[in-house]
Amino acid sequence: GPSLDVLAGLSGRRFGSAIGGGHGGPLTRSFDDPAYRAIMAAECGVMTPENELKWSVLRRGGAGSFDFAPADRLLAFAEANGMAFRGHTLLWHHPQYTPEWVAKHDYGSKPASEAARLIEEHVTTVCSHYGRRILSYDVVNEAIDPETGDYRTTPLTQHLSPQEAVDLAFRAARAAAPEAELVYNDFMSWEPGSPRHVPAVLELLEGFRKRGVPVDAMGIQGHIGDPGGAKSAPFAARDERAWRRFLDAVTAMGYKLHITELDVSDKKLPAPTAERDAQVADYARAYLDCMLSYPQLGDIVLWGITDQYNWLNGLTPRSDGLPKRPTPYDDQFRAKPLRAAIADAL
Ligand code: XIL
């Protein structure tokens, strides 16, 4: 039958997945497996490097050093197989994925300008290196603290305000990659414990418009499923009206939408495989039907295409210790009900 990317293409969309090269520590190594690469090539029109464009890999050599080799290896594979490549991500607060030198760096007597220089240098160097080979960037990832709704702080924003840092990243990206689509990417928690997240992201998006910051799209990560697996966006019928109000507000401001990191946490679903897979598929189907009802939705990108290599297994395990099954292909690379659910939704 037709690939998921061909099906997505029927409505002018693209389908894809993340892939990991395993660089910089205990990171996903799906790229090393030829079976994984074959499924990517067969199903996908777009590919996201799971970690290789983060500061933790690209900037691990220290200030002034850029190691493009890990990401370039993935990009060569994408290009050889006719896949677009997404730039994930130019600015992310996460301390674990920011090299230590950033905090220890000598910011000198004008620390704000030095922080700004580092951000601008990073964005400009990456965008210039790739030129038209990357036409969509998650410029800023997860800028908002979901509990407080405030901007998150990072070593770079000790000196420069977080708003200035975020705005600067987008402005520098527009200048260095004028043809690229610029995305603000966030997981959008959908749990009662984070009531500030949604309004704060809407304020952020409004602020971009008021200040003329060049942002084209909102990337919805789409780590859906039962709460607690990741800081996820649980989606159920009872949430749909509130979720639509959020999407309506985002699109009313003129932003396009992408699903950038879809997976379905089955952390708390029943153990029997058939039942678990069926619930995962139903959950994703309801979510995708809602998302696909927005003509503004472009890409549908998974955060991993087989259960064999999946970041969720590195987070809190299921209480029964069974491996999680959050993707459309199982650990033997056989299509699961989730694959059929995505195909049907498309
Ligand atoms: C994750 C990777 O999948 C892991 O391999 C890594 O250890 C941590 O980062 N939201 C994001 C992604 O924007 O960059 C994260 O990727 C998953 C959550």
UniProtKB/TrEMBL annotation:
It catalyses: Endohydrolysis of (1->4)-beta-D-xylosidic linkages in xylans. Its EC number is 3.2.1.8. The keyword ATP-binding does not apply. It holds the Pfam family Glyco_hydro_10. InterPro entries: GH, GH10, GH10_AS, GH10_dom. The active site is at 261 (nucleophile). Keywords: Carbohydrate metabolism, Glycosidase, Hydrolase, Polysaccharide degradation, Signal, Xylan degradation. SUPFAM superfamilies: (Trans)glycosidases. The keyword Kinase does not apply. Residues 21-345 form the GH10 domain. Belongs to the glycosyl hydrolase 10 (cellulase F) family. This is Beta-xylanase.
